[in-house]
């Protein structure tokens, strides 16, 4: 290749590098997004599947794969959360939450309830739809994730049982009480527990109120550095939607 052509290619390369700049640095692109972290739970036993909007933008069930026609967003149903694992990012500041009953083949999407909260950059929050017909509520809980000891796993219990019995629910792992009791519409603090090796036998998790115990299906494998929430929901004394304990992985 002659000197003239080499000079042209060198100059072109320099122009491309200059044009890209820091905005196109792949390391910058892979950096975590700024904003608040949100996890949304459906804990209203008699409500159909719902969608959550944050500041009028769809938050839950977002389809990230291009399609034509674009399908309806996947609703969050009772006993489930969005995202299933981890959190999703929203802008920090004032947040208007709108929960809407998901559209079906025969009915358009319709409003269920709404609420407001202020969320801070870099902090974590759980947002719950709770209650029953005529008394739906939106509960926002700040998830204070202790990060002091990454060699431990962390667990907590959230009590969303309507007409919850006095005393609330505490959490037991393998028969050992690990959290304080959580009253209705509250969460215990995350508490450190000893982790297990990957693939170890699941440990039994029970939400307990006096002599009444609710066992979380599947148990828990508390891995080091992970955070787990046991959500207790349902209606106390109701045989159709009785209180049930469900394990959720925060991080």
Automatic annotation (TrEMBL):
<dbReference type="InterPro" id="IPR025510">
    <property type="entry name" value="DUF4397"/>
</dbReference>
<protein>
    <recommendedName>
        <fullName>DUF4397 domain-containing protein</fullName>
    </recommendedName>
</protein>
<keyword id="KW-0732">Signal</keyword>
<feature type="signal peptide">
    <location>
        <begin position="1"/>
        <end position="18"/>
    </location>
</feature>
<feature type="domain" description="DUF4397">
    <location>
        <begin position="36"/>
        <end position="166"/>
    </location>
</feature>
<dbReference type="Pfam" id="PF14344">
    <property type="entry name" value="DUF4397"/>
</dbReference>
């Amino acid at each position: 290749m002659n000197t003239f052509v080499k000079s042209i290619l060198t100059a072109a390369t320099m122009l491309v590098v200059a044009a890209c700049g820091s905005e196109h640095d792949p390391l910058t692109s892979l950096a975590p997004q700024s904003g608040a972290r949100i996890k949304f739970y459906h804990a209203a036993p008699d409500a159909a599947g719902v969608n959550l909007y944050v500041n009028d933008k769809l938050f839950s069930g977002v389809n990230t794969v291009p399609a034509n026609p674009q399908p309806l967003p996947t609703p969050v149903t009772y006993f489930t959360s969005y995202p299933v694992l981890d959190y999703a990012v929203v802008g920090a500041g004032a947040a208007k939450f709108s929960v809407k009953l998901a559209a079906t083949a025969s009915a358009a999407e319709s409003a269920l309830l709404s609420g407001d909260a202020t969320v801070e950059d870099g902090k974590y929050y759980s947002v719950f739809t709770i209650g029953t017909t005529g008394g739906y509520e939106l509960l926002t809980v700040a998830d204070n994730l202790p990060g002091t000891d990454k060699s431990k796993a962390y667990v907590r219990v959230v009590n969303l049982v309507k007409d919850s019995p006095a005393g609330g629910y505490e959490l037991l792992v393998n028969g050992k009480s690990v959290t304080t009791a959580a009253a209705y519409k509250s969460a215990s603090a995350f508490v450190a527990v000893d982790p297990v090796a990957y693939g170890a036998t699941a440990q039994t998790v029970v939400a307990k109120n006096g002599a009444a115990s609710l066992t979380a299906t599947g148990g828990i494998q508390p891995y080091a550095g992970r955070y787990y929430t046991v959500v207790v929901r349902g209606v106390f004394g109701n045989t159709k939607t009785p209180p049930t304990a469900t394990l959720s992985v925060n991080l």
